[in-house]
Design brief:
heterodimer; A: alpha/beta; TIM Barrel; 8-stranded mixed β-sheet; two-stranded antiparallel ribbon; 8 helices; 26% helix; B: alpha+beta; Sulfite Reductase Hemoprotein, domain 2; 4 domains; 5-stranded antiparallel β-sheet; 19 helices; 20 strands; 37% helix; globular
Chain lengths: 205, 555
C-alpha cells in the first residue's frame, strides 16, 4: 500500500474515506481565450450535466466523500447512511456555499467537508474555509484536497482547515513543518480568532 | 515613527527563515517555476529582463536614517550601488542575485524592514501622503491606522491569494495627495460631526489597462471598523472576482460589472457578520500605535528668519529651490523639503548608495533622523528649521539632490520601463531623460509652471500616466516601440483620467511633441492658469491640432 499523504491536525494518517468524482465526458470542452487554455473556471460555472451527476456511481458500503451535486441529487436515498456517519461532501471553489446550506441546515451531520482546489493559487478556498467555520458553524473535519502544497498550509490552517491531502507527488512529512511557519500572527482569523493586540500585552515603544 | 516590538521582529525573522527555505527548495528543484512564482512575488522578487528585481517595502513611505543607510549598504553590497524609488513609495533593486535574496532580507530585518507582499496577488504596501503629520491641511494623521493596517494585512490568511493585486491608500488631508481614488480601496479620514475619526471609503479605483476612478462605497465609517470593513470588501472580491483573465481580475472590474449599488449591498451584508468581530480596532491599540507618531520635539521658533529672507533676496538659485522644493509646515519656523531625485538626464527616482548615505546624514542633521518617500519618487525631509534651509540646500546641491523642479515638467514620474522590466512594451527612462534635456532651462521651466508628466512603459501603468497632466504610454506596434500621449489627467480631489490625443509617436519625436503641447499652453493660457486648467478649459482639440499639424504649418 502506498504511503498516505493525508495530514489531520498535526499527524499523517490513513484516509478512511473513498473519494467519488463525477465521470468526465469525452467531449469536455477545453476553454480558450486569446488562444490560451483558460485554467480557472469562471465563478459559479456549472460544468457537469444532470445526466452525469445522476449516473455517478456511489460505492454501496463504507465512508464515501461525494461531490456536493451528487449528494444533493441522491440526498433522500442516502439519508440512512448519513445518519450512520458514512456520508461526507466535497465542493469546488467555484460552488457557492449557499447551495450546501440550503440543503442541509446543520452541517455538523457531516463528519467531513472537503474543498477541492484545482490550482494552488486559487485563494477562494480560504474564504470558503472561513465561512464554513464562522458563518455555518461547521465543527468537524475540514479538508483541502487537489493542488494542495506545503506553502499554502499555514494559511489554510488559519482559515479553519485541519485536514490536508497533500498533492501525491509531494511529501506530507515535509509539509508538516510549514504549519509552524509563524508563531504569533498579527490578525485574528479562524484558528486564533483574537488579533495579537488582544492576546498579548504590547507596551508602547 | 513605528518601532518594532518583539512580536513584529519575530514575524520578519520567521519570514526570512521561511523564504530562505523556499529559495533552497526552488534551487534544489523541489519547487517548479510556477509554484515558486507566487512565493517569490509575495516577497517582492520579480524575474526581470536582465536579472531579478527586488522590491523592498517602505510602509507608507516612512524611513529612518538608519534604514536608509542600510538600504545604501545593501545596494552597494548586493547590487550596483543604486536603487530606484517607485511610485508605490518602495525601493527597487534592479540587479540582485536570486540566491542572495534571503541574505538581503536578513539584512533588512536587522533594521525592521522587509519585502513582504510588495508584489503578488495580495494586499500590497499601504501608501499615504508624504507630508503626513506635518501638513498644514491635515485633519487626521493617517499613519497610526496605516501601521495597524500594515500589520493586519501582513500574511492575512484569507487574502493570501486574491484574484489580483490589491492596493490600499489612506489619506487624512483636505487636499488629497495619496490618490485615494486610484486605489482598490481608498480611505479618506476626516473628523465627523461628533469630532470623532471617521473614514470615507472609496472602492474600485485603479489605473492599469482599464483606468477607473473609485466610487464611494461608504460615506461614514467609524475608525474602529477599518479592518473589518476592508475584510468584507475583500471577501466579496476574493469569492466573486474573476480569475479566468488576469486583465479582468482587479476589483474595479467586479465593481463595474455588479454596479456600485449591488456591490455595496453585498459588502454591507457581509459586514453585518464581521462588524464588531475581534479584528475591530480598540482604543488601546490605536493609542499604542499612535504613540509612535507623536509630534517631534520642535523648538519654539518665530515665523520669519532674517538670514533666510536675505538669502532669498540675494541668491536667485536658492530662491528658486525654495519656491519649488520647500513646503509649508504646521509648525511655526519649520518647513518640509523635497530632495529631488529628478536631476536632468538621470532616471527619475534613482538614487545612488552615496546619495542615500548623504540623505540619511542630512536627515540626521536637519530633520530628526527621519524621511519619507513620495509617490512622485522624491525624498522628503519633513521637519527642517527655516534657519537651516540654506545650509541644507548647499549640501544637497553638492550631491545632485537640489534640482529646483518639484511639481514642474521635469519632475517626471516614470516607471523603470523596457530597460529593466520584462512586462514593458517600451523604454521609459530614455524618454524622461530626453524631455528633461529639452526643458533644461530653469527659467523657462518655472515660467511653464506646475505640470505633472507621467511615463509608463506599458498598460500596467506603474508610472500613473492616466493621471499625468501629460501622460505618456509605451506601446508595442509590430515589435517596435511607440508612445501614446494623453493630456488632462490629474491626481487630487478633482482627479481625472487623461484623454489620448491621437496616433502614437516614435521615441525621437517625443521631446518635440511635449514642446508643442507646451507651446499651445503658453499661447492660450490666462495669467493664473496652470497647464491642466488650460486643457480643462479648451479641451484637447487645439493641442491635438498643433501637435499633428504638418511641419510646414508649424513653422
Amino acid at each position: 500500500m502506498s504511503k498516505s499523504n493525508l495530514i489531520l491536525n498535526n499527524e499523517i494518517i490513513e484516509d478512511q474515506w473513498t473519494l467519488v468524482t463525477i465521470p468526465v465526458s469525452e467531449d469536455t470542452v477545453v476553454r480558450k481565450q486569446a488562444g490560451k487554455v483558460v485554467l480557472f473556471k469562471l465563478t459559479g460555472e456549472v460544468i457537469h450535466t444532470p445526466e452525469q451527476i445522476a449516473s455517478t456511481e456511489i460505492p454501496a458500503k463504507g465512508k464515501v466523500l461525494l461531490p456536493l451535486s451528487v449528494w444533493i441529487a441522491h440526498k433522500d436515498a442516502l439519508a440512512d447512511r448519513l445518519s450512520k456517519g458514512e456520508i461526507a461532501v466535497w465542493l469546488d471553489t467555484h460552488e457557492p456555499l449557499e447551495l450546501l446550506a440550503e440543503q442541509q441546515a446543520d452541517l455538523n451531520v457531516f463528519p467531513l467537508i472537503s474543498v477541492h482546489v484545482e490550482r494552488f493559487a486559487d485563494g477562494r478556498i480560504f474564504s470558503i474555509g472561513n465561512l464554513l467555520r464562522t458563518r455555518y458553524g461547521f465543527k468537524n473535519e475540514l479538508r483541502a484536497f487537489g493542488d494542495v502544497l506545503r506553502d499554502q498550509l499555514f494559511f489554510l490552517k488559519r482559515c479553519g482547515f485541519n485536514s490536508y491531502l497533500i498533492r501525491a507527488d509531494r511529501s506530507a512529512e515535509d509539509a508538516l513543518a510549514s504549519l509552524k511557519d509563524f508563531t504569533e500572527p498579527y490578525q485574528g482569523a479562524v484558528d486564533i480568532n483574537q488579533p495579537v493586540w488582544r492576546r498579548v500585552h504590547r507596551g508602547s515603544n | 515613527m513605528y518601532k518594532y516590538d518583539e512580536i513584529d521582529q519575530a514575524i520578519v525573522d520567521e519570514r526570512v527563515a521561511q523564504y530562505r527555505d523556499q529559495t533552497r527548495r526552488y534551487l534544489a528543484g523541489e519547487l517548479t517555476d510556477e509554484e515558486f512564482r507566487p512565493l517569490r512575488l509575495q516577497n517582492g522578487l520579480y524575474i526581470q529582463r536582465h536579472a531579478p528585481m527586488l522590491r523592498i517595502a517602505v510602509p507608507y513611505g516612512m524611513l529612518s536614517s538608519k534604514q536608509l543607510n542600510k538600504l545604501a549598504d545593501i545596494a552597494k553590497r548586493f547590487d550596483r550601488s543604486y536603487g530606484h524609488f517607485s511610485t508605490r513609495q518602495n525601493l527597487q533593486l534592479n540587479w540582485p542575485k536570486l540566491e542572495d535574496v534571503p541574505d538581503i532580507l536578513a539584512e533588512l530585518a536587522t533594521v525592521e524592514m522587509h519585502a513582504i507582499q510588495t508584489s503578488g496577488n495580495c494586499i500590497r504596501n499601504i501608501t499615504t501622503d508624504q507630508f503626513s503629520g506635518v501638513a498644514p491641511d491635515e485633519v487626521i494623521d493617517p499613519r497610526a491606522i496605516a501601521e495597524i493596517m500594515r500589520q493586519w494585512s501582513t500574511f492575512h490568511p484569507e487574502f493570501a491569494l486574491l484574484p489580483r493585486k490589491f492596493k490600499i491608500a489612506v489619506s487624512g488631508t483636505k487636499t488629497d495627495r495619496a490618490i485615494v481614488q486610484a486605489h482598490d480601496i481608498g480611505m479618506e479620514f476626516y473628523p465627523d460631526a461628533d469630532n470623532k475619526i471617521a473614514i470615507k471609503v472609496w472602492v474600485g479605483g485603479g489605473l492599469g489597462r482599464t483606468p477607473i476612478l473609485g466610487s464611494v462605497i461608504r460615506e461614514h465609517l467609524e475608525w474602529q471598523h477599518a479592518l473589518t470593513y476592508c475584510e468584507a470588501i475583500i471577501r466579496v472580491y476574493n469569492l466573486h472576482g474573476r480569475r479566468d483573465n488576469a486583465y479582468k481580475a482587479r476589483i474595479k472590474i467586479l465593481v463595474k460589472a455588479l454596479g456600485i449599488d449591488e456591490f455595496r449591498n453585498q459588502v454591507e451584508a457581509e459586514w453585518e457578520h464581521l462588524k464588531n468581530s475581534p479584528n475591530t480596532i480598540t482604543e488601546t491599540e490605536l493609542a499604542r500605535v499612535a504613540d509612535h507618531f507623536t509630534e517631534m520635539p520642535y523648538e519654539t521658533l518665530p515665523t520669519h528668519n532674517a538670514a533666510f529672507d536675505s538669502a532669498i533676496a540675494s541668491n536667485p538659485a536658492f530662491a528658486a529651490w525654495v519656491k519649488r522644493n520647500v513646503h509649508a509646515h504646521k509648525k511655526s519656523g519649520y518647513r518640509a523639503v523635497t530632495l529631488s531625485l529628478k536631476t536632468h538626464g538621470q532616471a527619475p527616482g534613482d538614487a545612488t548608495s552615496e546619495q542615500m548615505h548623504a540623505v540619511a546624514n542630512l536627515s540626521d542633521e536637519y530633520s530628526f533622523g527621519e524621511l519619507r518617500v513620495s509617490h512622485e519618487q522624491n525624498l522628503i525631509l519633513a521637519d527642517v528649521k527655516i534657519s537651516d534651509l540654506l545650509s541644507l540646500w548647499e549640501k544637497a546641491r553638492a550631491h545632485g539632490l537640489a534640482t529646483a523642479n518639484i511639481g514642474l515638467l521635469t519632475d517626471i514620474i516614470c516607471c523603470p520601463g523596457g530597460d529593466f522590466c520584462s512586462l514593458a512594451n517600451a523604454k521609459s527612462i530614455p524618454i524622461a531623460e530626453a524631455i528633461q534635456m529639452q526643458f533644461d532651462n530653469l527659467d523657462y521651466l518655472h515660467d511653464i509652471g506646475e505640470l505633472e508628466l507621467n511615463i509608463s512603459g506599458c498598460m500596467n501603468a506603474c508610472g500613473h500616466h492616466h493621471i499625468g497632466h501629460i501622460g505618456i504610454l509605451g506601446v508595442d506596434k509590430d515589435g517596435s516601440e511607440w508612445y501614446q500621449v494623453s493630456i488632462g489627467g490629474k491626481q487630487g480631489n478633482d482627479a481625472s483620467i487623461g484623454s489620448v490625443i491621437g496616433p502614437s509617436f516614435a521615441a525621437e519625436e517625443m521631446p518635440g511633441v511635449v514642446q508643442r503641447l507646451i507651446d499651445v499652453y503658453i499661447g492660450e493660457r490666462t495669467p493664473e492658469e496652470r497647464f491642466i486648467d488650460t486643457v480643462r478649459r479648451l479641451g484637447i482639440a487645439p493641442f491635438k491640432a498643433h501637435v499633428y499639424a504638418k511641419e510646414s504649418e508649424n513653422v
